[in-house]
Amino acid sequence: MNCKEEKFIDIQGHRGCRGLLPENTIEAFKKAIDLGVHTLELDVAVSKDGIVVVSHEPYISRTYCLDTDGNEILEAFDKKYNLYQMTFDSIKQFDCGTKLHPRFPEQKKMKTYKPSLEEVIRISKNKNPNIKFNIELKSRPEYDGIYTPEPNEFVKLVLDVVNKNNAFNETNLQSFDLRVLEEIKEQSPKITVALLVDEDESIQSKMSKMSYAPEIISPYYKLLDAKTVNTLQANNFLIIPWTVNTNEDLLKMIDLNVNGIITDYPNRLIQILKD
């Protein structure tokens, strides 16, 4: 397919490479870089002591983590281990790599922990100075002050880490929460912003609620068709869908000429682009 050769597609490793190694871990990010991704997609929360922690949930998830003694976390304790109420040192005591993830049987298992954003940026840049970061701030109104800081503080903490580690030009920030996106533009007008659109949302409707135009539109992949992609790109938006995993769906997104693809299996996308 000539389109694959002619057009650059930003290969984004979702939570590192969740299909292959435990999500949002140093090991997964290193593996993704070794595979050849251009961008590491990751999620952040905040600890009690103000450390930006790389984690999809603002709590220790019983789906893929064990407690500090290596035991299963009971359903009754779901969401009990709130990262915002725990120091970073205590968060690191939980094993988030040994337990078999029910949705990712190919994941290689290993004892590992939730790292800090600073650690991820530093190690990743040492491994590949050109690597880029797509950082999602996991925020919801009902989390404010309970599981996460208020949006203004959350955004400030993340920007401080990005700037301190000289990663501004390699980073974009993304969120489903429009309050966070407005706060990002207020605090850092020149940083690249991605609007995340969930599967039950409308791209146009959500865009219309923003006070500015983000550089990237990042919708659930099934929301996209040729007309939508062409129209958005004609208006200078980059289109980077999430989370595309099967070869069939990866090929569909390539055929739509999207600008990037977020995938749990960057190895599959890389192979398709080589063929």
Automatic annotation (TrEMBL):
One of its GO terms (biological process) is lipid metabolic process. One of its GO terms (molecular function) is phosphoric diester hydrolase activity. Pfam families: GDPD. Residues 9-273 form the GP-PDE domain. PANTHER family: GLYCEROPHOSPHODIESTER PHOSPHODIESTERASE, GLYCEROPHOSPHORYL DIESTER PHOSPHODIESTERASE. This is Glycerophosphodiester phosphodiesterase.
